[in-house]
Design brief:
7 helices; 20% strand; 5-stranded mixed sheet
Length: 234
């Protein structure tokens, strides 16, 4: 069984399609954030619905769109997030799409290869908003403070890939499929085949920029989006 692990597609259907066309897989786990920043959140949602991921949790941007709340994302991208939510995502997604986003869970638990896996967008203690660039065992608690009975954590949110073990836990973050921010502009994703593998793939960034330019965005927001896509940095 070869499982494709995806997170933080952020409206970038071009990078998502490239991953799906080039990679072999039997099933998909998706860790949230279909929406905001990229030009085609509706296409990303349609692709994922067709894929029918075995695991699919909501992200802070998906939750913000679904329920009309703030995304509580990082200060450097907060203004850009709000702008693209109002001028791209909310215009592209239908009412039915938003209703669907409300059905996505905050976390999932699954027995895999004899171990308990915990899937969440951010960290278990703060499942939508907790940034965990480096794994912290203290985060392996639910919002009531109870320790989570799982040996493996699969998460996203930071846009920085991570793969390791610490204090008896395995942890894996595939990075961002649609908007990497770790200095590598290639789309990031993961594979699980009994072991975890971090993967990168080049996609047509110019095509995404052309799609953004069709949206008549304010120049300062357009320039920041393009810079992130081309450099893989905020």
């Amino acid at each position: 069984m070869r499982i494709l692990i995806l997170s933080d597609a952020h409206g970038n259907s071009e990078s998502l399609r490239t991953i799906l066309e080039k990679e072999s897989y039997d099933a998909v786990w998706f860790l949230g954030d279909i929406t905001d920043y990229g030009p085609h959140p509706e296409e990303v949602l349609d692709i994922l619905r067709e894929l029918k991921p075995e695991v699919w949790v909501t992200g802070n941007h998906d939750y913000a769109n679904a329920f009309g709340v703030d995304c509580h994302c990082g200060q450097k991208t907060h203004e850009l997030s709000v702008y693209t939510r109002e001028h791209i995502t909310q215009k592209k997604l239908s009412k039915d799409d938003l209703i669907f986003l409300r059905t996505l869970p905050l976390y999932e638990e699954k027995d895999v290869d004899g171990s308990k896996f915990y899937f969440v967008h951010a960290c278990p203690e703060n499942p939508l908003y907790g940034y965990m660039f480096d794994f912290d065992p203290n985060c392996m608690r639910n919002d009531l403070g109870r320790k989570i009975d799982a040996s493996t954590l699969i998460y996203g949110h930071t846009h920085f890939p991570r793969n390791g073990t610490l204090d008896g836990y395995r942890y894996f973050n595939p990075g961002s499929a649609g908007q990497p921010r770790d200095g590598d502009a290639r789309a990031a994703y993961g594979i699980y085949d009994g072991e975890f593998h971090l993967k990168r793939i080049k996609y047509d960034v110019d095509k995404v920029v052309k799609e953004l330019d069709k949206l008549s965005l304010l120049p300062e927001h357009r320039e920041l989006l393009v810079r992130i896509l081309r450099s893989g940095k905020i």
